[in-house]
């Protein structure tokens, strides 16, 4: 490739393709670690699948709508920042720890999500995560509330390092979560919302696994809730696209090079290892490549499909106390499915829509040949819909760990409505690249956890 002009400086430690959140976080982390990074994207905007699209006209273009938005009805196009993938941030979760670890919080401002709800018996109920909330919840009868309150108290006091907090005859590594629920005499529907709306599992196989896997997930929910009080979730002003851009700035500060509108073509050595990347007649060598799975059709396998419906509304969701932002989980058993349906709502108060407008995104893992019919329970909660943009995408994952050829591929973003699985994938890729786990510590120059404080 010596006959081609250099791409960027011509030689890099790492070339990252795709500017999705996962790729931008990895780019930032490796730049901070002293690696020379080139980051490129075939699109003309940051964020890839995790972008926030602006102006609104661009969203119509992406979804190939034959018409253009009516400004009299939708407001100014530049007032919109519409997420392609809906996810909220756990206030005490892994993404916040990554933001604090890298000090990317300085580029962002957050707003708390007003409430977290679960669908049961054709009604929405606020998810209780404290014994006090349990006593006032419409999810349970009086005696079940008392049992659930005791269960939550035990969860919140549990410490894996202190055997005295475990309870008599309980071994968290051997006792299943189902056995824990049974110990507290909780009924099936209480197990259902506990596992799906608090522990945030998408399916029920966790019930037969050791309780030590589920307890931290429930504690994360209650700890995140305790931080602000209304819900365990926060959301960045101007949309999720601010997150990859924040990490892109971090990478740039440490010498990272960014190029948009650069479709990559990968060049390999005779032994199959990566040699470099060429684009539009230019070439750059590298030691390794990181990228989202859509860039590597020959290195990924399909593990399922996910449907997402972006819906523009002119009103809040009914029965959510007129909240301007909410998370709603429809557990699988409530609608005879194998996995949950998620509804995430944000609005003009987050600087992502014009005045008085709301963005509700309904998402689910596809289980049939009629995906849009599958999410009807979520769509039916929304009321009148001004405009709808529906996508069905493949869930892709790498067929190998990348260590042999030094091509490290991330997984697609799943249907879950939070970033915990996203962060686990980032940490897995980081460890495969460096051979060391990612240590999420608070840097001395960061403003500690308050740097991720949510605006009221």
TrEMBL record:
InterPro entries: FAD/NAD-bd_sf, GDP_dissociation_inhibitor, RabGDI. Pfam families: GDI. GO terms for biological process: protein transport; small GTPase-mediated signal transduction; vesicle-mediated transport. One of its GO terms (molecular function) is GTPase activator activity. Keywords: GTPase activation. One of its GO terms (cellular component) is cytoplasm. It comes from the Eukaryota. Belongs to the Rab GDI family. This is Rab GDP dissociation inhibitor.
